[in-house]
Structures are given as C-alpha cells and as structure tokens.
Design goal:
heterodimer; A: 255 residues; alpha/beta; 6 helices; B: 329 residues; Rossmann fold; 7-stranded parallel β-sheet; 18 strands
C-alpha cells in the first residue's frame, strides 16, 4: 500500500550494559563508569527499527535520530545512522539530569519546529528506569501519544497500536502527527551492515546545546541494595520436595 | 498538614488493587504531613460510583467520581485532563499514581500538564519540609537512588506490591464530577480492552509467581507450571525472555529487564538458568525457589531454596505436595 512520505524523529539514549556489578562513584551521586560498556538502549533500537520499517514502506520518508548528552552520545547516534537513519542531532549537555521533565523540555524545544509526523521513543531506559520522557515530551508538544506499543499499523494519516496491560491488551487508535513509545515485541532491531557503518560516517550529525531548565528532581544519594543472602541448595530430585515444603511452611511462611 | 491526591486506577467496572495501594500510600503521606485529607479520583463507566465506598475503606476522605459512557475503556486524554484539572484546583502537596501500565502512561502526562516532574517505581517516601524524598530503583534494581523532589505537587507513581492496601476507614464523601474533556473529542482512543487468556491472576499482583524457562523443553510442558500455579491457587505464571522469544508464551508473560518486574512473596523458577536479564525482573521477590538440573546455574546463587533435579520429576511432586499442604490448611 502506498502512503505519502513521512518525517520521523527517534529519540535515543546511550545506556550502560546492565550485565555487571555497578560501583558508586566517590561523590555517591553517580556511577563509577570505569569498565562499563555502553550501547543504544534496547527499547530505543526497536524504536529506530520501527521508524526504518515505516520509511521503507513510504518512499521519500526521512528518519532523524536525536540524543541528549555529552559528546560520547554521538557514538549512539552513529549506531542508529549505521542501522539506516538519515541524520542525527546531538543536544549537548555535560551531564544528563535525572529529571524527565527537564529532558522532555529540551527535546520538545528541538522537536517542535521539525514538523515530524511521528516521534518515536523507547518506552523506558534501564539506567534511570523512570520511563517518562516520551509521554512528557508529547504533552509539552500537545501531540497525541500512545505509550508502550507492541504492534503498529499506519494508514491514511491514522495509526492503530496495541498496548500490553497486566493480563489484558488495549487496541488504540490515534491520528498523526503523534508520539509513540515502543515496547518489546514490536520488532527485532536490525544489525548495522558493514555498508551501513561506512555510510553512517558520512551522514550529517549536528550538535546543538541542550536547553535544559532547572531540574525539579535531583539525586541525593545512590547506593547498592543489600545483597540477597547466598542461595542454598537443599537437595536433589523429587526426594527434596518434602524438605522444601516444610521450609516454605515453617521458615519462609509462604505456604 | 497537607491534602494528598490519589488516582484510583480502574479497569472497566472495577477498582484495581494498585488503585487501593495508591489510596493507601496517599493516606500514609497525608498522615506523615500531620493529617491532611486524601482525595481519590475514580473514573469509569456508569456504576463505578458503587466502588467509592471501597476507596473510603482504604483511607479516602473524599472520592471524586467521574462516570461517563465513554469511559468503559481507559481514555488517556480524558484521564489526563480530569486529573490535572483537579490537582491544580485542589492545591495538593502531592499526587499519587501507580507504576502500572496505565499509571506509567498517565502520571507523566498529568505531571507535564502541570509543569512538574514525576518519579515512577517509587519504593518509599518521606516529607522533609518543602521536599519530598523518595527511593527509586535504577539500573534494573542494581542501584537504589534517593531522590529529592522540589516541585509542588510532588507527583509519584508507586511501584506495585510495595505498599499493601491497608484498611483505614475515612468518610469518603462522594463528589460527582464531569470529565474535563468530552471523551467523544479525545484524539487517542482505546477502542477495545482485550482480556488476557483465562482471567488468571496478574503477574504484578499475584502473591506467588511460578516462572518457566527453556528447561521445560517445549511450549506444551508449561502445563507443569500451570498445574503448580493452580495447586497454590494464588499464583500467576511467567516466563523467561528465551521462552517468549520462541513464542511458547506471549511477550506479556516475560519477567525480566525488558519485561515485567515482579516481587511476590514466593517466586518459583522452573528450568530457568538465571540470566542477568531475568534476575533483573524478580530479584526483589521475598522468597525464591529454583529447580534446575544444572547445579551451577546462576539462579541457585539467588535462590533461598534450590533443588537440583529434573523439572519433569520435581515439579509434579511439588504440585502434589502443595495440594496436600493446602488441603490441611
């Protein structure tokens, strides 16, 4: 089905790999980043993929990738460009604040003049784990918004998406332009091809200052949660079941 | 002394457990501030006013009921406009939502409409003068942040299951109100809410969660997990990412970093090795049981009680034993 060209923005975040034991920095306000590996947030990669799939169906469409942060986020933008996005914008700031409203304001400032038909976000990032920037940006821009979508169809200037709830699903209709945040299950993100990686180096990447207002939420302290007490193996095979049931009744008191 | 707003989440004709948790949290916050009132907002289809009394039981001094034919399904724009208008006119110190699928959608919209920030997945809160201080898990629960919110109202979305709904009956004076936006004019419309398979307990709300992994070897073997869940009677069934990626179970059942976060009283991992991505979704469970044939599986590092063995032998035996134990209760 032919649909007219769409202008799409995708907001992405550079996040650390979670498969590590985190250390708190000496200031107790930030993480010690030494040894951490960073990449594009998974949910954001699925958002980029969703945008690329729409562009492929609609000749003449364009995908812009935006990331707020220090110069290292250019790597994250290049990753999205190597997947196939057309151009990138870095909203430069030395430190990404925790405050989702401050971030949403800075993104909205950039997005508002872009006449985008669709603005994608990942539904959340695992580092700050707050998941509010997408819907807050939509609200500031006054745009319709559907969060945490796991299916998406666009036709005739209208969209239909599915959202997973606890034990249920919502089918949601919305007009364009709109803001969408992406959940797992919408697609599988493509790997950048060698050709894509080469092409990404020549794609435009603009840097502008992030216009961040004063934060209303600040980090007072970061700490590691108490360790779970070490696990214990109570036995082998079905013969250990009786012991388990006794422990669940008398020690854990959950049965 | 300050009044606190609570959003009492509903689905169709019913108040959800997270809605009662929000009212309970608001009650705690009002009492911490020296005994202000809790005003709970309840939106839903005609008949939802019958649930106002339930909110009074959990500590609402006032229940604002908005009934409308157009609210049989969640309407993000109507809920945003109605909640934001009420919070603004009510002059509340704080507004409490839930970090449920609906709350994650609604709380940031309402906060942005009010020009204030929001913290989701809140574990605990204190009022310190002009600041509300909250604890919030970061980095998939591997780091806990203490955050200071300077905005008024402080908008918080509580993590489900952190605060148990507590009876604390108040007057619950009902105020009937109109939606701040005509549902017929909303741009974003939920045209259908589909029930999940079988009306089982939800993962986030169930006191017991039984989760299955690749060790079950095939989709049909999830019957073992289902049987164990039904022996408990108060259990929900979850799965690992490997299993949902293979299509054995729907994505909505996935427990882990990119899926659902659960912290039940009892978590039983069946044939789950314990990848970091999975542990991220269940490590705050109170008691963890693991059954796996590989004694070196990482799941045993976090399991309070581990059994090394074949799930096809151990789980049916456990199901039988739990059935027996429940009989004698």
């Amino acid at each position: 089905m032919e649909i007219p060209a769409v202008k799409i923005a995708v907001c992405v975040k550079r996040v650390p790999d979670m498969d590590v034991r985190f250390r708190i920095a000496a200031d107790s306000l930030s993480l010690d980043e030494a040894g951490l590996k960073f990449d594009i947030n998974d949910f954001d990669a699925w958002a980029v993929e969703a945008a690329l799939q729409l562009r492929e169906k609609n000749a003449g469409s364009e995908v812009t990738v935006i990331s707020l942060g220090p110069d290292v986020v250019q790597e994250t933008i290049r990753k999205a460009l190597s997947m196939g996005a057309d151009r990138g914008i870095q909203l430069k700031t030395d430190k990404i604040p925790f405050d989702g409203l401050a971030i949403a304001n800075a993104l909205a400032e950039e997005l508002k003049g872009g006449s985008y038909d669709l603005i994608f976000f990942g539904k959340m990032s695992p580092d700050s784990s707050n998941g509010v920037v997408g819907p807050m940006t939509a609200e500031i821009l006054g745009l319709p918004c559907v969060t945490a979508i796991s299916t998406l169809e666009i036709a005739n200037g209208k969209g239909t998406a599915k959202r997973e709830l606890e034990g249920a699903q919502e089918i949601v209709e919305f007009p364009l332009p709109a803001v969408l945040t992406v959940d797992e299950g919408l697609n599988t993100a493509r790997y950048p091809s060698l050709k894509g990686i080469m092409a990404a180096k020549k794609k435009p990447l603009q840097t502008k200052p992030a216009l961040l207002p004063e934060p209303q939420v600040t980090v007072r302290k970061l700490e590691l949660p108490p360790e779970r007490k070490a696990g214990r193996i109570i036995g082998e095979g079905a013969s250990a079941v009786a012991e388990l049931v006794t422990l669940l009744q008398t020690e854990a008191k959950v049965l | 002394m300050a009044n606190i707003f609570a959003f009492a989440e509903s689905r169709g004709p019913d108040v959800r457990k997270v809605g009662l948790e929000a009212v309970t949290a608001a009650r705690m916050l009002a009492d911490k501030s020296g005994g202000g009132e809790v005003h709970a907002l309840l939106l839903g289809p005609p008949g939802i006013s019958g649930k106002a009394n339930q909110l009074a039981q959990y500590g609402a001094d006032v229940v604002i009921v908005v009934e409308h034919d157009g609210l049989a399904n969640y309407s993000p724009e109507v809920a945003t406009a109605t909640a934001a208008e009420r919070i603004k006119s009510g002059g509340y110190r704080a507004a409490i939502f839930s970090t449920s699928a609906q709350g994650r959608d609604l709380a940031p919209r309402v906060a942005a409409r009010l020009g204030v920030s929001v913290v989701t997945d809140v574990l605990s809160f204190e009022i310190e003068g002009d600041t509300v201080v909250v604890r919030h898990p970061m980095n998939i629960g591997k780091v806990i942040a203490t955050l200071a919110i300077s905005a008024t109202p402080a908008v918080l979305a509580m993590r489900p299951n952190v605060i148990s709904p507590a009876q604390n009956a108040k007057a619950g004076r009902v105020e009937n109100a109109q939606p701040a936006l005509d549902p017929a004019t909303a741009r974003v419309r939920v045209i259908e809410t589909r029930k999940g398979s079988g009306g089982k307990l939800d993962l986030a709300e169930a006191p017991v969660v039984i989760a299955g992994g690749r060790g079950l070897k095939a989709a049909e073997n999830f019957k073992l997990v289902e049987d164990l869940a039904s022996a408990f009677g108060n259990a929900a069934v979850g799965a690992t990412r490997a299993v949902t990626d293979d299509g054995w179970r729907p994505h909505s059942d996935q427990i882990g970093q990119t899926g659902r976060l659960v912290s039940p009283e009892l978590y039983i991992a069946v044939g789950i090795s314990g990848a970091v991505q999975h542990l991220a979704g269940m490590r705050t469970s109170k008691t963890i049981v693991a059954v796996n044939k590989d004694k070196d599986a990482p799941i045993f590092k976090v399991a309070d009680y581990g059994i090394v063995g074949d799930v096809f032998e151990v789980i049916p035996a456990l199901t039988e034993a739990v059935r027996e134990a429940k009989k004698h209760h």
